[in-house]
Design a protein that fits this description.
The protein has 99 residues and is an alpha+beta fold. The protein contains 5 helices and 3 strands, in the order ααβααββα.
């Protein structure tokens, strides 16, 4: 992991809505409308949070097609990850970039 990736990951996780989204997605995949209701925010705002989480590599999306309206739904799912962070690990990441 490099400095930029770590900062992006921490930025994405440093928001209460994003933590709630991750907690919900940890139990399965959901489409945007149901996820927005569960989180308690509007769909446009949810999309902004999901984009940040997706850019950080924490969630993935998939568009599925159906025979009845709505014909497509975008589902989101959390990616498995583990974050072990210490002062020594931060020092190591910074040192690698300076070389």
């Amino acid at each position: 992991m490099d400095k930029k990736s770590l900062a992006q990951l921490l930025d994405a996780l440093g928001n209460e809505h994003n933590l709630k989204i991750m907690g919900i997605l940890a139990s399965g995949e959901y489409f945007v409308s149901e996820l927005a209701k569960m989180v308690g925010i509007s769909r446009p705002l949810l999309y902004l949070h999901l984009k940040k989480l997706e850019n950080a590599g924490l969630v993935k999306s998939e568009i599925r097609h159906f025979e009845e309206p709505p014909y497509t739904k975008k589902f989101y799912k959390a990616k498995k990850f583990e974050l072990l962070l210490s002062l020594d690990r931060i020092k190591e990441i910074i040192s690698l970039e300076e070389k």
